[in-house]
Write a structure and sequence with these properties.
The protein has about 850 residues and is mostly helical. It contains 48 helices and 7 strands.
Length: about 850
């Protein structure tokens, strides 16, 4: 049975190779009768023999295949600390190491695999997992060496899993001919279906159809247990081979046997006259992307086509950190010998460019991610666009019409990169909305350089050219986000959603602008799109996160998370939300590990590392987190100021501001152009008492940052001074730009209290609440400043919040305290009890409940009853 599972794993070393070949192999692995039988038996075997390593390995294989690496990691967690690490556990440790690598925890993966290798040094399969980990780290040459070493340890010269991994790595290294020769030699000796499937994929990728056809038929001979999906795949490939070999009549007959809308239309087009040219594919070679470097890899592949140097990794170091914004791609290219035009892709423009011999980039936008690929060809008979995806070594064929329609809410954006001096190649080619994209580019660049007036002028140019175009709304949205103007953001997003009601990315953007709305309104807004059959799992995660605010809704939050993770088991936002659920449930160690996993999966999102660090402090693992953050700074500090800011923040959390200052000063020496670093350092240095040094940094940073951010820092520093009028002035300048900036309102309130008394502070806040009556943050601040005016004022302010958001536990606690002072004990008890139900992990909930219970003689008599209820 274990042999069957290893065969299933090797049909695709499923994470070890991707693209068309992975699709082929994954389908085959899923539909071999013996594997399905083994899947059923593995569950029974492990349940009947839970301490048997072989039975556990069988179950682990199936779990990884169906539910992903996180499920496998959590299932095998006991193996990490198991004292017995003999040969019988080497396979489990190897699986754990592989899962850790997929979760991008390479240090842990290396340790686990080292234990596995020491337990069974002659085990070829265990050594093969080393190749996977090295590939996940983007160390392909070392991975290839490890795979060869694994094959050398096996007694048979053609170790089948090793052969497949070596062929896959050779293909990743753009050495297809070597991979084909190896697979031919292995296929002659092994008579193995998965090897032939991989060979067929490679031959078809290289256009060697005369050789691919007999390989496909040999695969069928060696796969007698293919079920219906597998047989349909074979029928599709037979039609494809006949078509690509020029046998149109035979291809039409074979396509008619496949019961899909595409193949029926394909067969009909094959019966028509042959278009000229029928298929065009430009010779754009594969450049493998590293983690989140799809844009540099795509630009490097296009650079190779035009014989211009564009080294992928050097590009990534220059322009890439947690992805690459479109304006930065264009700016870099224009400064390095390229002529760049962006446009909205239509089928006509795509065909025109390909016929001129010009590949171009396409950006696809999903609910919570974006990806760049190169369009390298067109197939008129199939209706395909041909894409060169940097994430897989196979040319991707997509149906042009539905593909372009799917990404129409964002264009889709196309970008032409051609060498300077060759602009004549674009003469006569209509690039839709190219002029609008130029204006939009100017908006993005101006905002990045904090030149708001220039950005506003570019927005006006867009509005003049096309006031209702998607790009005009997008530019207005960017400007509103820069200005921190959620009302304008909501107006722009409402207009965009009216155009494309089902666009999950827009719905999420609109939801994130609802920070001033009540929890109930936010839940109601998300519930409707979540109930659609085609709802994106990212919406489920957002709804689950909103439900977390109320402990009474945690069960519902878990249900939505399960739905999301069934479809996307490695979704970092879902794992992060699951970590919050575990934390609120009191499972601190489990939550801390999930926070670490989430941060590792994303690698470049600083707020995830901050969440992990906070959890580490609570679980006494601060030293581990600080060491990791220091390592991140050494690896990525040259590419972004974010790792330095996160490490400095962590040292401040540890109450070591001197260490934080050292980190920031060193980062400024490395990146003197970063105004954000200088602002953070100025604020920290001012807190340490060195106001002159802080002032120097402030003045240096002013031209390098957004005016809002400069005013925010200046107001915070001024608040520490003697004259509160200075702080009020800067904070009010910020409020002119960001009327809902709560930190600025807090500075004004504190400074007014120092200068004129609490009444002036409350007057300022009441005016803000009148201007923005639905903003809960302002209402809460006003409620806090109402306390000195007596319990009536405090109770009324808290009640006003509860009218907007009945599940606001803070407001219920505040109202309970006010009601106690008003001698309304029963109402106070009801409010305090409800607050404890909403936030049972919040210590204030029970301290206030206890205070209410002890505040009157009646309540004292029933205190034990209440304590038993909450125990």
């Amino acid at each position: 049975m274990l042999v069957a599972y290893r065969q299933a794993d090797a049909v695709a070393p499923l994470s070890l190779w991707s693209g068309e070949g992975c699709v082929i192999a994954a389908r085959l692995a899923s539909h071999v009768g013996a594997i399905r039988l083994g899947a059923r038996l593995s569950v029974r075997g492990w349940r009947s023999r839970p301490f048997d390593p072989e039975a556990k390995a069988q179950y682990a294989y199936e779990l990884a295949r169906l539910r992903g690496s996180l499920a496998l990691w959590r299932f095998l967690r006991s193996e990490r600390e198991h004292a017995d690490s003999g040969p019988e556990r080497a396979e489990l440790l190897g699986l754990l190491g592989r899962a850790a690598a997929e979760l991008r925890d390479f240090e842990t993966a290396d340790g686990l695999l080292s234990r596995a290798e020491s337990s069974g040094p002659a085990n070829a399969w265990t050594r093969l997992q080393r190749a996977y980990i090295l590939e996940a780290e983007d160390r392909l040459e070392e991975a290839l060496e490890a795979a060869h070493d694994a094959c050398a340890r096996h007694p048979y010269p053609y170790y089948r899993p090793g052969v497949q991994v070596i062929a896959h790595l050779l293909q990743q290294l753009d050495r297809d001919n070597e991979a084909i020769e190896l697979l031919y030699a292995a296929a002659e000796r092994l008579q193995n279906g998965p090897v032939l499937a991989q060979l067929y994929a490679l031959l078809s990728e290289n256009g060697r159809w005369a050789e691919a056809e007999p390989v496909l038929e040999r695969f069928v001979e060696l796969s007698p247990l293919l079920e219906r999906p597998g047989r349909q795949w074979v029928a599709e490939q037979r039609a494809r081979v006949a078509y690509r070999s020029g046998r149109r009549a035979e291809a039409a007959r074979l396509a008619a046997l496949v019961d899909t809308d595409f193949h029926r239309a394909f067969a009909a087009r094959l019966a028509d006259s042959t278009p000229r040219p029928e298929r065009l594919q430009l010779d754009v070679t594969f450049v493998r992307q590293h983690f989140k470097t799809c844009a540099p890899a795509t630009l490097a592949a296009i650079g190779r086509f035009f014989r211009l140097p564009a080294a992928h990794l050097q590009l990534a170091e220059t322009i890439c950190y947690d992805g690459t914004p479109h304006w930065l791609q264009r700016e870099w290219a224009e400064q390095n010998g390229w002529h760049v035009r962006s446009f909205r892709i239509t089928l006509e423009s795509a065909v025109a460019l390909i016929e001129r011999g010009i590949p171009f980039a396409i950006t696809t936008v999903e609910a919570n991610s974006a990806h760049m690929m190169a369009v390298v060809g067109i197939d008129h008979t199939c209706g395909y666009l041909l894409l060169r995806d940097p994430g897989q070594p196979y040319v991707v064929e997509v149906e042009a019409a539905p593909f372009l329609e799917r990404y129409r809410p964002f264009g889709p954006r196309g970008t032409v990169f051609i060498p300077d001096g060759e602009q004549r190649r674009l003469e006569g080619v209509e690039l839709p909305d190219a002029a609008l994209y130029d204006h939009h580019h100017h908006v993005s660049v101006a905002l990045e350089r904090h030149q708001r007036e220039a950005a506003l002028a570019a927005v006006h140019a867009l509005e003049t050219a096309s006031p209702t175009d998607l790009l005009t709304l997008e530019a207005r949205l960017e400007l509103a986000a820069y200005d921190a103007n959620p009302a304008e953001q909501q107006r722009c997003l409402d207009a965009l959603i009216d155009r494309f009601p089902g666009a999950a990315a827009r719905i999420l953007q609109r939801f994130h602008c609802m920070g001033d709305a009540s929890r109930e309104d936010r839940i109601q807004y998300l519930t409707a799109p979540c109930t659609r059959r085609d709802a994106d799992p990212a919406l489920f995660v957002a709804l689950a996160r909103t439900l977390l605010d109320d402990a009474r809704s945690h069960a519902a939050a878990r249900r939505w998370l399960r739905r999301a993770m069934q479809r996307r088991p490695m979704d970092s936002s879902a794992i992060r939300t699951l970590a919050d659920v575990e934390w609120e449930s009191g499972n601190l160690d489990e939550a801390t590990e999930l926070y670490r996993i989430t941060a590792g999966i994303e690698s470049f999102q600083e707020h995830l590392y901050q969440s992990w660090f906070i959890a580490c402090r609570r679980t006494r693992r601060s030293a581990e987190a600080l060491a990791h953050l220091q390592n991140r700074l050494s690896r990525f500090g040259s590419r972004s100021d974010q790792p330095a800011l996160t490490l400095a923040w962590a040292w401040q959390q540890m109450e070591q501001p001197v260490r934080a200052r050292e980190v920031l000063e060193e980062a400024i020496r490395q990146r003197p152009e970063s105004g954000t670093l200088q602002l953070r350092a100025a604020r920290l240095i001012a807190e340490l008492g060195d106001e002159s040094a802080a002032e120097v940094l402030l003045q240096t940073a002013r031209s390098l940052v957004r005016e809002n951010d400069w005013l925010r820092t200046r107001a915070a520093i001024a608040e520490r001074g003697v004259d509160p009028a200075i702080a009020i002035d800067y904070a009010r300048q910020l409020l002119e730009r960001e009327p809902l900036a709560l930190d600025a309102h807090a500075i004004v309130a504190r400074a007014l209290a120092r200068r004129e008394g609490v009444g002036a502070s409350l007057t300022h806040l009441r005016q803000a609440v009148e201007a923005f009556p639905h903003h809960l943050g302002l209402r809460r601040m006003a409620a806090e400043w109402s306390r000195p005016n007596g319990p009536e004022a405090a109770e009324q302010a808290a009640a006003a919040i509860l009218q907007l958001e009945p599940s606001n536990a803070w407001a219920r606690r505040e109202r309970a305290l006010a009601l106690m002072r008003l001698k309304r004990g029963d109402e106070a008890l009801a409010e305090a009890s409800e607050a404890a139900r909403i936030e049972p992990r919040q210590t204030y909930s029970f301290s206030i409940l206890g205070h209410v219970c002890g505040g009157s003689r009646v309540m004292k008599r029933h205190a034990r009853t209440f304590a038993a209820q909450w125990r």
